[in-house]
Prior knowledge:
Elements: H1 6-14, E1 19-21, H2 26-29, E2 35-46, E3 66-70, E4 76-78, E5 83-93, E6 98-104, H3 106-109, E7 113-114, E8 121-122, E9 127-136, E10 142-144, E11 149-157, H4 190-193
Antiparallel strand pairs: 1-5, 2-3, 2-5, 2-11, 4-10, 5-9, 6-8, 6-11, 7-9
Amino acid sequence: xxxxxxxxxxxxxxxxxxxxxxxxxxxxxxxxxxxxxxxxxxxxxxxxxxxxxxxxxxxxxxxxxxxxxxxxxxxxxxxxxxxxxxxxxxxxxxxxxxxxxxxxxxxxxxxxxxxxxxxxxxxxxxxxxxxxxxxxxxxxxxxxxxxxxxxxxxxxxxxxxxxxxxxxxxxxxxxxxxxxxxxxxxxxxxxxxxxxx
Length: 197
Protein backbone atom coordinates (compact mmCIF):
# COMPACT_ATOMS: atom_id res chain seq x y z
CA UNK A 1 0.00 0.00 0.00
CA UNK A 2 1.17 3.50 -0.80
CA UNK A 3 -0.07 6.90 0.34
CA UNK A 4 -1.20 9.20 -2.47
CA UNK A 5 0.83 12.38 -2.94
CA UNK A 6 -0.71 15.75 -3.71
CA UNK A 7 -0.18 15.25 -7.46
CA UNK A 8 -1.85 11.82 -7.32
CA UNK A 9 -4.74 13.17 -5.23
CA UNK A 10 -5.33 15.89 -7.85
CA UNK A 11 -5.19 13.31 -10.66
CA UNK A 12 -7.62 10.94 -8.89
CA UNK A 13 -10.04 13.84 -8.35
CA UNK A 14 -9.72 15.04 -11.97
CA UNK A 15 -10.34 11.49 -13.24
CA UNK A 16 -13.40 11.12 -10.98
CA UNK A 17 -11.87 8.28 -8.95
CA UNK A 18 -12.11 10.25 -5.69
CA UNK A 19 -15.01 12.59 -4.94
CA UNK A 20 -14.59 15.48 -2.51
CA UNK A 21 -17.59 17.77 -2.82
CA UNK A 22 -17.36 20.65 -2.36
CA UNK A 23 -13.62 21.19 -2.71
CA UNK A 24 -13.85 24.97 -2.58
CA UNK A 25 -10.18 25.83 -2.13
CA UNK A 26 -7.96 23.04 -3.52
CA UNK A 27 -4.82 25.18 -3.23
CA UNK A 28 -5.29 25.45 0.55
CA UNK A 29 -7.02 22.14 1.21
CA UNK A 30 -4.76 19.77 -0.74
CA UNK A 31 -1.65 19.16 1.35
CA UNK A 32 1.50 17.20 0.35
CA UNK A 33 -0.13 13.84 1.21
CA UNK A 34 -3.66 14.62 2.41
CA UNK A 35 -6.68 16.87 1.96
CA UNK A 36 -7.91 19.14 4.73
CA UNK A 37 -11.62 18.65 5.43
CA UNK A 38 -13.99 21.07 7.11
CA UNK A 39 -16.56 20.49 9.80
CA UNK A 40 -20.26 20.72 8.94
CA UNK A 41 -22.89 22.74 10.79
CA UNK A 42 -24.80 19.96 12.57
CA UNK A 43 -23.63 18.49 15.88
CA UNK A 44 -25.00 15.81 18.19
CA UNK A 45 -24.26 15.51 21.89
CA UNK A 46 -25.48 13.17 24.61
CA UNK A 47 -28.41 14.29 26.74
CA UNK A 48 -28.24 13.75 30.47
CA UNK A 49 -30.34 10.63 30.95
CA UNK A 50 -31.18 8.42 33.89
CA UNK A 51 -29.75 5.13 32.76
CA UNK A 52 -26.90 3.21 34.32
CA UNK A 53 -25.20 2.73 30.93
CA UNK A 54 -25.64 2.45 27.18
CA UNK A 55 -26.27 -1.23 26.52
CA UNK A 56 -26.00 -2.37 22.87
CA UNK A 57 -28.59 -5.08 23.58
CA UNK A 58 -31.13 -2.56 24.90
CA UNK A 59 -33.83 -2.07 22.24
CA UNK A 60 -33.93 1.67 23.02
CA UNK A 61 -32.75 3.76 20.12
CA UNK A 62 -29.38 5.35 20.91
CA UNK A 63 -30.57 8.31 18.84
CA UNK A 64 -32.99 9.14 21.67
CA UNK A 65 -30.00 9.72 23.98
CA UNK A 66 -28.67 12.44 21.68
CA UNK A 67 -29.54 16.09 21.14
CA UNK A 68 -29.01 17.79 17.77
CA UNK A 69 -27.58 21.30 17.39
CA UNK A 70 -27.61 23.27 14.13
CA UNK A 71 -25.05 26.05 13.98
CA UNK A 72 -25.51 28.66 11.26
CA UNK A 73 -23.80 31.74 12.67
CA UNK A 74 -21.15 31.51 15.32
CA UNK A 75 -19.38 28.54 16.86
CA UNK A 76 -20.26 25.24 18.47
CA UNK A 77 -18.56 25.22 21.88
CA UNK A 78 -17.21 21.90 23.11
CA UNK A 79 -16.38 21.87 26.80
CA UNK A 80 -13.71 19.81 28.59
CA UNK A 81 -14.80 16.19 28.94
CA UNK A 82 -17.58 16.55 26.36
CA UNK A 83 -18.13 14.34 23.35
CA UNK A 84 -20.01 15.30 20.19
CA UNK A 85 -20.67 13.94 16.73
CA UNK A 86 -20.46 16.04 13.58
CA UNK A 87 -19.75 15.38 9.92
CA UNK A 88 -17.35 16.72 7.42
CA UNK A 89 -18.72 19.54 5.28
CA UNK A 90 -17.45 17.59 2.27
CA UNK A 91 -19.10 14.52 0.77
CA UNK A 92 -16.48 11.83 0.08
CA UNK A 93 -16.62 8.87 -2.31
CA UNK A 94 -13.87 6.25 -2.62
CA UNK A 95 -13.29 3.70 -5.37
CA UNK A 96 -12.98 -0.02 -4.62
CA UNK A 97 -9.18 0.05 -4.58
CA UNK A 98 -8.52 2.93 -2.15
CA UNK A 99 -8.83 3.20 1.61
CA UNK A 100 -8.60 6.41 3.59
CA UNK A 101 -7.81 7.54 7.12
CA UNK A 102 -9.05 10.65 8.85
CA UNK A 103 -6.68 12.38 11.22
CA UNK A 104 -7.17 15.53 13.24
CA UNK A 105 -5.19 18.60 12.19
CA UNK A 106 -2.35 19.30 14.60
CA UNK A 107 -3.52 22.89 15.13
CA UNK A 108 -6.82 21.51 16.50
CA UNK A 109 -5.12 18.74 18.48
CA UNK A 110 -2.93 21.30 20.22
CA UNK A 111 -6.12 22.81 21.66
CA UNK A 112 -7.02 19.44 23.22
CA UNK A 113 -9.57 18.46 20.55
CA UNK A 114 -9.62 14.99 19.00
CA UNK A 115 -11.56 14.51 15.77
CA UNK A 116 -12.06 10.77 15.91
CA UNK A 117 -11.95 8.36 18.79
CA UNK A 118 -11.62 5.04 16.97
CA UNK A 119 -13.34 5.40 13.61
CA UNK A 120 -10.68 7.08 11.50
CA UNK A 121 -10.57 4.30 8.89
CA UNK A 122 -12.67 4.64 5.71
CA UNK A 123 -13.31 1.46 3.71
CA UNK A 124 -13.07 1.20 -0.08
CA UNK A 125 -16.42 1.91 -1.71
CA UNK A 126 -17.57 4.30 1.05
CA UNK A 127 -19.54 7.35 0.03
CA UNK A 128 -21.06 9.98 2.29
CA UNK A 129 -20.03 12.60 4.77
CA UNK A 130 -17.60 11.29 7.35
CA UNK A 131 -18.86 11.28 10.92
CA UNK A 132 -16.39 12.91 13.29
CA UNK A 133 -16.22 11.75 16.92
CA UNK A 134 -15.10 14.91 18.67
CA UNK A 135 -13.76 15.02 22.22
CA UNK A 136 -12.31 17.83 24.27
CA UNK A 137 -9.55 16.33 26.39
CA UNK A 138 -8.15 19.74 27.28
CA UNK A 139 -8.95 22.03 30.18
CA UNK A 140 -10.65 24.89 28.31
CA UNK A 141 -13.81 25.10 26.17
CA UNK A 142 -13.01 25.34 22.45
CA UNK A 143 -15.04 27.03 19.70
CA UNK A 144 -15.49 25.10 16.44
CA UNK A 145 -16.89 26.99 13.46
CA UNK A 146 -18.82 25.43 10.56
CA UNK A 147 -16.60 25.08 7.48
CA UNK A 148 -13.44 25.36 9.61
CA UNK A 149 -10.66 22.96 8.55
CA UNK A 150 -10.44 20.48 11.44
CA UNK A 151 -9.16 17.20 9.99
CA UNK A 152 -7.36 15.69 7.04
CA UNK A 153 -7.99 12.64 4.91
CA UNK A 154 -5.12 10.45 3.72
CA UNK A 155 -5.63 8.04 0.80
CA UNK A 156 -3.86 4.70 0.40
CA UNK A 157 -3.86 2.35 -2.56
CA UNK A 158 -4.70 -1.32 -2.09
CA UNK A 159 -2.97 -4.27 -3.75
CA UNK A 160 -6.20 -4.97 -5.67
CA UNK A 161 -9.83 -3.78 -5.62
CA UNK A 162 -11.93 -5.10 -2.74
CA UNK A 163 -14.02 -8.14 -3.64
CA UNK A 164 -16.85 -6.94 -1.39
CA UNK A 165 -16.35 -3.19 -0.80
CA UNK A 166 -18.27 -1.13 1.70
CA UNK A 167 -21.85 -0.90 0.48
CA UNK A 168 -21.82 -4.37 -1.12
CA UNK A 169 -25.23 -6.06 -0.65
CA UNK A 170 -23.66 -8.88 1.39
CA UNK A 171 -22.13 -6.44 3.90
CA UNK A 172 -23.71 -4.70 6.86
CA UNK A 173 -22.69 -1.25 5.62
CA UNK A 174 -24.65 0.66 8.22
CA UNK A 175 -23.26 4.10 7.43
CA UNK A 176 -23.17 4.13 3.62
CA UNK A 177 -24.41 7.39 2.12
CA UNK A 178 -24.70 9.21 5.44
CA UNK A 179 -25.08 12.97 5.16
CA UNK A 180 -25.70 13.91 8.80
CA UNK A 181 -23.97 12.98 12.07
CA UNK A 182 -24.93 9.35 12.57
CA UNK A 183 -25.25 7.86 16.03
CA UNK A 184 -23.98 4.36 16.69
CA UNK A 185 -25.89 1.56 15.02
CA UNK A 186 -24.16 -1.06 17.14
CA UNK A 187 -27.48 -2.76 17.85
CA UNK A 188 -27.49 -3.73 14.14
CA UNK A 189 -24.19 -5.64 14.48
CA UNK A 190 -24.62 -9.30 13.62
CA UNK A 191 -23.62 -10.63 17.05
CA UNK A 192 -25.95 -8.21 18.86
CA UNK A 193 -28.88 -8.60 16.47
CA UNK A 194 -28.69 -12.40 16.57
CA UNK A 195 -28.06 -12.70 20.33
CA UNK A 196 -24.63 -14.24 19.84
CA UNK A 197 -23.25 -12.61 23.01
